[in-house]
Design a protein that fits this description.
Elements (H helix, E strand, L loop, with lengths): L4 H48 L20 E6 L8 E2 L13 E7 L2 E9 L4 E7 H49 L19 H46 L8 H28 L9 E4 H18 L3 E5 L5 E4 L1 H18 L5 E9 L2 E8 L29 H11 L3 E6 L7 E8 L16
Parallel strand pairs: 7-9
Antiparallel strand pairs: 1-2, 1-5, 3-4, 4-5, 6-8, 9-10, 10-12, 11-12
The structure holds adenosine-5'-diphosphate and magnesium ion.
Adenosine-5'-diphosphate (ADP) binds next to α6, α7 and β12.
């Protein structure tokens, strides 16, 4: 069973064309054989007619012997009542004088001959031709008639394969487009130039995309609304706690501080939820896009965490900078890179190293954040971009940071990846890539910002 539609079409059409080609070849061959035979027969009749018209006397009475071997046509003329031929171009050959008038096949001198016998009142004329000569001639012309089919058949196979491939290319492109559908890129597929047979599929896919986009948007709005609504009571709670602080008995201070920390954590979580809802929203005209310098974003993110890094004895630096610009909202890019950098800072033990590098790969520029932390269990790696997923719950966090980074990357057609280092050291390489505005040149690395 051939699964590919392309192969099915090529093989079916190829077999069809081959069958037609073979039938056509065989019939050409047969027709050519019959045509050549008819032509040769006509020649025998013509020679016989000439003999009747008085040419027989022109044949020498005693032709030189043995001279006929190469000649394929032999003429014998009989006169009534005579036992030997009146004239013959090959005296060594004897054909049956009483052969049926018209064409017949005989054996003479252990060779096959085709004879045309013509009876006139004054003479009997026999014109004969070697069957082997006729056979060679007919085969030669018939084989020539086969050539076009032999040459054209492989060409037709190639042509069929090319035509089918061309026709199905559009289908492949559509397949790729459908594969590229992502919850962060829910654009309807274009119907321009789509074959009528495929239009209904595309239309149903588009309806599905529309519904999905609607559902995702509703979910995003719900998260944003919920986070927004939660902010007010939480602020009130925080105020109440602040007011209560002086009245807490010394014995209860520790538990009270735990309560305040809990309130602060909830506040951070709500803030992260709001950020995620904002990052998930498609870019609209509300916030104008600017030409953002990626290397500035990188140095900005390093500067932001520098005080914590210094306090924790972390060596953080940016090197191998590339001059690249992205059309985006600057705070989005800042937040994405800062989330990666702050993860590196939080998960790398004191005294570790964090390197930021930029590299160009085609039309994208990537920012790598490389740390010397513990890395992540390979089995858990595929889940790090899931909302609320946390691989090491001992360190404080919301589990939303990487989801926000992913949403921001997708918002600008970029991508983000996280992998363990493969240079023998433990740690993570977190990379975020953006499509840059124009080709830019590599610039010298600025002074490393080290803690
Ligand atoms: N640089 C890193 N080193 C080790 N683990 C990391 C690193 N970055 C992220 N992780 C893991 O991925 C999880 C998800 O990250 P993230 O979405 O930023 O949430 P969190 O708020 O917990 O930092 C983290 O809880 C952590 O276990
Ligand atoms: Mg994080």
């Amino acid at each position: 069973m051939i699964k590919s539609l392309k192969n099915q079409l090529v093989i079916a059409l190829g077999i069809l064309v081959t069958v037609i080609g073979v039938i056509q070849g065989v019939s050409s061959y047969k027709l050519s054989q019959a045509g050549t035979n008819a032509l040769l027969d006509t020649r025998l009749v013509q020679v016989a007619t000439r003999m009747r018209d008085g040419f027989a006397e022109g044949i020498p009475a005693n032709p030189s012997r043995g001279s006929q071997d190469d000649r394929d046509v032999v003429v014998v003329v009989w006169k009534p009542g005579e036992a030997v031929p009146f004239r013959t171009t090959e005296p060594s050959l004897r054909f049956p004088r009483d052969a049926t008038p018209g064409f017949s096949n005989v054996v003479a001198n252990s060779e096959h001959w085709r004879i045309y016998t013509r009876r006139e009142p004054t003479m009997t004329i026999q014109v004969a031709q070697r069957a082997s000569v006729r056979h060679d001639l007919t085969e030669e012309t018939a084989t020539l008639a086969l050539w076009p089919t032999v040459v054209l058949l492989p060409l037709v196979w190639i042509l069929v394969a090319l035509v089918v491939r061309r026709s199905l290319r559009q289908l492949n492109e559509l397949g790729r487009e459908v594969q590229g559908i992502d919850t962060s890129h829910l654009q309807p597929l274009s119907l321009v130039g789509v074959p009528t047979e495929i239009k209904p599929f595309i239309e149903s896919i588009n309806t599905m995309i529309e519904r999905l986009a609607g559902a995702i948007d509703k979910e995003r709005k719900f998260i944003a609304d919920a986070a927004h609504e939660l902010r007010t009571p939480l602020t009130a709670l925080q105020l109440q706690a602040d007011n209560l602080a002086p009245h807490i008995a010394p014995g209860n201070q520790e538990r009270f501080q735990e309560l305040r920390k809990g309130i602060a954590r909830s506040g951070k979580l709500i803030a992260q939820l709001l950020r995620l809802a904002r990052a998930d929203a498609p870019v609209n005209g509300a916030a104008p896009l600017a030409r953002v310098d990626l290397s500035e974003v990188v140095t900005g993110a390093v500067a932001d965490v520098l005080p914590i890094a210094i306090a924790r004895g972390l060596d953080i630096g940016a090197e191998e900078m590339v001059s690249a610009h992205v059309r985006a909202i600057e705070t989005d890019l800042g937040m994405a890179v800062k989330n990666l950098v702050s993860n590196a800072v939080r998960y790398t033990p004191d005294g570790g190293t964090i390197d930021l590098r930029m590299r160009r790969d085609g039309e994208r520029v990537w920012i790598d954040v490389i740390d010397t932390g513990p890395g992540i269990d390979e089995a858990l790696l595929p889940r790090v971009f899931d909302r609320f997923f946390r691989a090491c719950p001992d360190i404080e966090g919301s589990g939303l940071g990487l989801s926000i980074v992913k949403a921001i990357a997708a918002r600008y057609g970029g991508d983000v990846t996280l992998r363990n280092r493969d240079d023998g050291q433990s740690g993570i390489v977190a990379s975020i890539g953006f499509v840059t505005e124009a080709v830019t040149e590599s610039v010298a690395a600025p002074d490393s910002v080290c803690a």
